């Protein structure tokens, strides 16, 4: 059996093709791993946004409970030792724009 001898040009073309295929496969694998990593990161960020929305809702609830008139009046009386306003301390303003 006689083996065919390859000249330098054919060897160079073969090596170039192999390197090109390896580079293309490497790029494809890199691209797929980056896509997967971005998917995981997106999922983490969506979960974080959901948690932050829940926390905002909870803080809004606390805010509204603290701003209720009964709560404000209780804090003013108990903690700040304030008395109810007297009639002479109340000033009424007329906000009508009519001259």
Element order, helices and strands?
HH
Record field, number of beta strands:
0
- In percent, how much strand structure appears in the residues? under 5%
Q: Tell me the number of structural domains.
A: 1
Mean pLDDT: 90
Helix content: 55-70%
What does this protein look like?
The chain has 99 residues and is mainly alpha-helical. It has helices at 8-66, 69-78. The longest helix is centred in the middle third of the chain and has 59 residues, at 8-66.
Q: Brief description of this entry?
A:
With 99 residues, the protein is mostly helical. The chain has two helices and no strands.
Essential attributes:
99 residues; 2 helices; mainly alpha; rod-shaped
Topology:
Layout: H1 8-66, H2 69-78
């Amino acid at each position: 059996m006689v083996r065919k001898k390859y000249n330098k040009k054919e060897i160079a073309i073969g090596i170039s093709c192999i390197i090109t295929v390896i580079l293309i496969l490497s790029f494809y694998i890199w691209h797929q791993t980056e896509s997967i990593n971005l998917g995981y990161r997106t999922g983490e960020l969506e979960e974080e946004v959901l948690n932050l929305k829940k926390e905002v809702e909870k803080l809004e609830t606390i805010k509204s409970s603290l701003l209720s008139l009964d709560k404000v009046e209780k804090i003013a009386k108990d903690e700040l030792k304030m008395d109810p306003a007297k009639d002479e301390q109340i000033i009424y303003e007329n906000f009508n724009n009519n001259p």
